[in-house]
Amino acid sequence: MNIDTKVTNAPISDAVREAMAISLRGVDELLPQADWQAKLQRAEHSGQPLRIKLGLDPTAPDIHLGHTVVLNKMRQLQDLGHQVIFLIGDFTSLIGDPSGRNSTRPPLTAEQIRANAETYFAQAKLVLDESKTEIRYNSEWSDPLGARGMIELAAKYTVARMMERDDFHKRFKAGQSISVHEFLYPLMQGYDSVALKSDLELGGTDQKFNLLVGRHLQQEYGQEPQCILTMPLLEGLDGVEKMSKSKGNYIGISEPANTMFAKVLSISDELMWRWYTLLSFRSLADIEALKAEVAGGRNPKDAKVLLAREITTRFHGAAAAAAAEQDFANRSRGGVPDEIPAVRLAGAPLGIGLVLKQAGLAPSTSEANRLIDGHGVRVDSSVVSDKGLKLAAGTYVVQVGKRKFARVTLA
């Protein structure tokens, strides 16, 4: 590292110690820690903020809480006074990142990328300070590279090192195909670090190889290498699988406040502390104090309500969070939420199975019957036990489970 030894040999200040503690909170790895501390010392000495990069490919239009784990870390470092760069990978999305996959990921079209990118920062700024965030698109420097520049870039990394990447290695050993263009993804992501002169790049644990490529390429281009910080993948609502929309165990940050609040309260007591570390902006000392209170007999639900209130407030505001908390309390007492979907159906008298299906409360009449057998269906607060029940013309509040409601008007 090209950092003045007078700076690195100076006593470590309390501010740098605090910055290191914040940097390390909840992380999987921070590499190399000594280099990052030296960078922090330099920044304190010079007054020049460090450049912290996060790249996201707009592969889907919605961000869930799992994505915000790394955004939260960005915000923490941003609050320390450093420059954060929110990089939208509109160029790399055209390649498709195979990280953690055993096959090529189909690349998105330019139209899909543009459509997704439009919503990305609108959601991310709910976590980041928009006024202190630099937004960049990697097509700015990747498109002008051209064929000659791409060849020169490819010459700076070996096939042997590329094959050290876990997913490439496994696929090669299994005799599965690896397209040449897949090698370009980590190279182009690494080149982003060169173009932005980043001091630190963040990512999930599945991005470690790509982040290290960035360090290597910066050295090849005569730059001081970035440090890398990987955040763990957040377990979803089930507490087992990583949060994923495809697995249905996620909380989207644009979901309604009532839904978000209720979903946070549905997680296990054990998972709650993991979420506190990775999602809460409370200090670690505050979290430890709260954990000690629960260990001493305080109801764990109290701590979970505080977490749900904090997360819902972040994305919807304090008033909406308070209303969501009241809505959840009403539901837990068997009450009906203030706002529920209104549905008009024809054909009265109509069998309860068809009512549930047509009102969107069950995917099929067979599933509706299963729900009735499990005592999970209520009409006007009364449990339905008769699958042959027919509802006459009128208006009814129909409930499935604890969260699904509809005000059904039959004619």
From TrEMBL:
Keyword RNA-binding in record: yes
Principal place of residence: cytoplasm
Binding-site residues for ATP, renumbered to this chain: 245
Motif 'KMSKS' region positions after renumbering to this chain: 242-246
Domain RNA-binding S4: 350-411
InterPro entries reported for this sequence: aa-tRNA-synth_I_CS, aa-tRNA-synth_Ic, Rossmann-like_a/b/a_fold, S4_RNA-bd, S4_RNA-bd_sf, Tyr-tRNA-ligase, Tyr-tRNA-ligase_bac-type, Tyr-tRNA-ligase_bac_2
The UniProt record lists the keyword Transcription: no
EC number of the protein: 6.1.1.1
Family, as annotated: Belongs to the class-I aminoacyl-tRNA synthetase family. TyrS type 2 subfamily.
Function: Catalyzes the attachment of tyrosine to tRNA(Tyr) in a two-step reaction: tyrosine is first activated by ATP to form Tyr-AMP and then transferred to the acceptor end of tRNA(Tyr).
This protein's name: Tyrosine--tRNA ligase
